[in-house]
Amino acid sequence: MREGFALKLRVRFTKNGSMKFIGHLDTMRYFQKAIRRAELPAAFTAGFSPHMILSFAAPLGVGVTSQGEYFDLELAEDMDPQEFVRRLDAQMVDGFSVTAAKAIENRKSNAMSLVAAADYEVGFRPGYEPSFDWQSQIPAFLAQPEILITKTGKAGERQVDIRPWIYRMQIKAPRILFLRLASASANYTRPDQVMEAFFAMAGEKLSPHALLVNRLEVYARKPETAMQGEEETDREPEWISLLEAL
Amino acid sequence: MKKLALRDEILLEVDKAARYIGGEVNAIVKEKSEVDIRVAFCFPDVYEIGMSNLGMMILYHMFNDREDTWCERVYSPWTDLDAIMRREGIPLFALESQDPVKDFDFLCITMGYEMCYTNVLQVLDLSGIPLHARDRGEEDPLVIGGGACAYNPEPMADFFDLFYIGEGETSYDALFDAWKENKKQGGTRRDFLLKAATIPGIYVPSFYDVSYHQDGTIASFRPNCPGIPSVIQKQVVTDIKKQYRSFEKPVVPFIKATQDRVTLEIQRGCIRGCRFCQAGMIYRPDRERDVDELKQSASAMLKNTGHEEISLSSLSSSDYSQLKELVYYLIDNFRDKAVNISLPSLRIDAFALDVMGKVQDVKKSSLTFAPEAGTQRMRDVINKGLTQEDILHGAGEAFRGGWNKVKLYFMLGLPTETEEDIRGIGRLAEEIAKCYYEIPKEKRNGKIQISVSTSFFVPKPFTPFQWAGMCSEQDFIGKAKICKDEIRSQLNQRSIRYSWHEPDVTVLEGFLARGDRRCGSVIEKAYRLGCLYDAWTESFRYDLWKQAFAEEGVSMDFYTLRERGEDEILPWDFIDAGVTREFLLREWHQAKKGLVTPNCRQKCSGCGARRYEGGVCFEASR
Ligand code: SF4
User: Which CATH architecture has domain A7-113?
Assistant: First the structure.
C-alpha cells in the first residue's frame, strides 16, 4: 500500500459543457477514478478500505461551469507537476480538463480552508433575459447600506446581510455580469443569491434556471492582508489564486 | 460539444441529471454517417441498475466492434423525467448520440426479470414506437427482446418483432448481416423477419399461431408460414475461454451504479442442478473461463476504468476450479494498489475463511449460507446439496476465527413443503446459535447475530418445477407467520432477526413467468393504468394490477396456482433450451420422491446440454 508521503499537489481543472450536470461528490469520484486510470502515484490511507488523500477546494453547484476548480492530492512518490497534469489530462472526458498543478511545500496547506473569494460570469439563458433595464440598476443595488437575504441552514431560517460579501458587480459584456463574491465557509455567497436580491430590489422575480453561471477563478486572501484582521473597511481585500496560495 | 436531448432547465429539475447526458469514460461515440446499422440497446430500468448489467455491457462492446454498427445505450427515464417527457412530448433518446430511439434501426431490450415488463412498454411508448409489433411500419425500429425472460417470451410476444433466445455472442452478426442484405435488396420489414426467423435462436412471434382448449390450456402452437422452424434452439457460446478484448473497457458511470466496480465473469452455467433455479438450467452447460485470461482481464479492466473494487461473477463461484489461484492472484496483485476485492458468496471452508480474513474486516463482515430450505427432506426435494452438518461445520470454523454474524437465506412455498419444513428454518438458526455458544466465552466476539430471510418460491420455465403449482398470497403469509413463530420460540430468539419479502410482487412474478400470449393484454392494461417500475417497492401498485386483471377478464390463479399436467403444452415448449423436457420431467419425479441427483462433475445426468459440445460435459475427456 502506498501509505507514504512524498509530495502534495494542488491541481487546477475546468468543468464545461454537459459536465456541469455532474454533482460535487460525483466529480470527486470521477477524479479518483481518473487518477487511477492515469496510474499516478496517489497516497492512500491505511485500513480495509483505503482511500486517496484528496480534498476539493470549493464545491460547485449543479448547472454551473467553471474555469478554475481546485483539489489537493497527496502523492506517495515524487513527480513533476507538469507530468502529472499531462497524464491526468489525457484521462479526461469531453468537458473536463486539467490545466495546472503545483507542488505545495506546506503539507498542512489546505485548499478548502484557504478559499476566500470567487469570480463569476453571469448571463441569462436564451429566452430568460429580463424585460427591464437591469444594467442601469446596478449602482443603486450596490449603494444600499445592507442587502438582506434569507438563508436556510441547519438552525432554520435566518436573515443575512450579503452586501459586504459582494466585492464587485460590473457589466462585463452587453448581457454579461461580472461578480466577485466572498466564498469562505463563513460568508459563502452564491451568484444566484445575489441575483435574486438584485431582481427583488427591482420588483422583478428571477425565474429558476434563468441564470447561466460560469465560475472563473477561486482565490485565497493574500497573506499580508489576512493579517490585518476583520476591521470594517470598504476596501476590497487583496487576492491571490489558490495555485499561488501556500 | 454535442447537444443534449434535454434542455438545461429539465436537467436541472430532475433527480440525477447524469443519468441522461452520456459522455462517460469508455462510452463509444461514432460518426453516424459512417455506420450502416444503428442499434439502441436498452435495459428497461433506471440507469444505475442498467449500467450494472454485465450481459448488456458485453453485447454493447461486441456490437460496436463491428465497424458498420453503432450501438448506444438506453435506460428507463425515472418517473420525474417520464412525466416531463410525456407533458412536453419529448421522445426517448439514446445516451451517446442523444438521438431519438425512433430513428434507430434496432431497439434491443434485455429483460432480466419479469417485473420490468411495464418499463418495456414505457420505453416503446416514450420512443413513439407503437406498442404492438403488428402496428409498426417500415420506418419503425425492429424491436428485439433478449435476456433470461426471453426463455418464456409469450407474455411479451405482442410487443416484440423478434426475440433472441440464448447467449448474444453467437447469432447477432448473422442477424445484422441479414438486415443489411435485405436493405440493399430493397426488402420490406416482413422480408427481413422471414429471413431472421431462420437464423438459429431467433423467434418471430407473428409467424406462430396458438390455439387453446376449452379449459384454457394450449391446444396447439405452430408456425403459420412455410419455412419457419417449429423449434427455436437456444444459443450458447461453446468456447468461452477467450475474452473479448474490447469488453475490457466497460463504461464508467459518473453517478454511483449499483455495481460500482469491475465485474469479472469467471464461468457461465452451473454444475449443481438445484431444481428451483432457472439460471442453473438455462445456462447449461457449465463453462469455465481460462484463469490466465481472467488475470489479464482483471488488470486491463481496472486500468481502463479506474474502479477501486473488483468482484467475480458467476453462479456457485466455489465450483470454479481455478478459484483459489484467481483469488490469491487478485489479493497479491491488487490489494497493494488499494483495490478492494469483493468476494462472491463462497462455500464456507478453510480457503473461504482465509481469503475473507484477508480482504474484509472480520468484525464487520458476515457469513452467508443459502440452505434454501429448513429440513434435509426439503433440501433433497430441491436438490440443494448443502447439509446441516456442512453449515454447522463451516459456521463453527468461522466462529473460532472471530466471525459472529450469519446471514441465512431460505425459500417458503416450495413444492411438497410441510409445516415441519418451515419450522426447520427456525430450528436450523437455533442450532447455529448453539454452535456459537459452545465456543469458550473468551474466544467469542460478543453476541451472535443471525439474520434469516425468506423469499417466496416462484416456479420458473425450464426448471423441474415448471409444472408445480404456486402458493396463493394468503398461503405465503401463513407460512411466513409459522416461520416467525418458530423462530420466536427458540432459546436464542433474541439473536435471530427475521425478514421476509412481500408476497404480492412474488405472485405477480409467478403470473408473468409462466404466462402465455393472453397475458400481454393484462400487462398493457396495467401499464395504461399507471404501473411502472414494478420491481421497486415504492412504485409497485398491486391495486392497479388487480384492476387490470379484472378489466381484462384474465384469471391470475389459472397461471399461478394450477399444477400443470405432464402432457400439457407449456407456452415455452417450442424453445429448445438445451435441457430436454424428458430430463426436467425425470427431475420433477425425483423431486416428488425426495431423491437427489448428482452434480455434473460427480456424474452426468444426461440433461441434454451435451449437444453444445463444450464445458463441463467434456471435462472428463480433457
Ligand atoms: S449433459 Fe451432463 S454434464 Fe452436461 S450439463 Fe447436462 S448433466 Fe451436466
Answer: 2-Layer Sandwich (3.30)
